Amino acid sequence: MRLGDNRDMPRILLVDDDDELRDMLGEYLARDGFEIETAADGAKGAEMALAPGVDLVVLDVMMPGTDGIEALRRIRAASQIPVLMLTARGDDVDRIVGLELGADDYVPKPCTPRELAARIRAILRRSDRTGRDVISVGSLTLHTSQRRATLGDAPVDLTGAEFEVLTVLARHAGTVVSKRVLSREALGREPGRFDRSIDMHVSGIRQKLGTRSDGSSWIQTVRGRGYQLVAD
Hints:
By secondary structure, this protein is α/β, with parallel strands linked by helices. Helices cover 38% and strands 22% of the residues. The strands form three sheets. The protein has a six-stranded mixed beta sheet, sandwiched between helices. Strands 7-8-9-10 form a four-stranded antiparallel beta sheet, covered by helices on one side. Strands 11-12 form a two-stranded antiparallel ribbon. It has two domains: 2-127, Rossmann fold (3-Layer(aba) Sandwich); 134-229, Arc Repressor Mutant, subunit A. It starts with a strand and ends with a strand. It is built from eight helices and twelve strands. It is globular. β5, α4 and β6 form a beta-alpha-beta unit.
């Protein structure tokens, strides 16, 4: 199903097996300025997510057959399109696994259409930033206008959220950045009480950057304070 037909609108793919919820969210988002496509299962959703023209995927975790986690795995094997996960409220396991696989953010269910729309817009704003500065920290270079990272001559394949977190750390290289500041500036929201999103994104960045020439990590954990990107 497709709602809205103006291609100037961001095209959102909504994947959820709950017909009533999917239709309700789709109708609200269409009225709120999005073009909506829908899928009722993870396999079809993963296939549609890789089609040209989709700007963001809203993906429910709990679906029969191919669930949201497996669908995310298939999407991330071929694309870095922004993905927002819908998780059961209080289910930290789904959130952690989703973030490890490269989800950009998550919203606990039940959620209001207004909250979902706000999260979608926040992710799209981060994805569409067109600042033209280049940030260099040692052999690490971030091309913010192109949302591209390189380490030496090698590209670093980051998700959208990982790129935003690394950009904030790079702008403050050599100083400690708190998790609260990272969440505000990189994810566009206040962190929840037990929110581990930043920790998971930093873990993903560390794996992709590998170690420095001296064997140390590019990102240091400063216990009780936050994270710091090594400046030299």
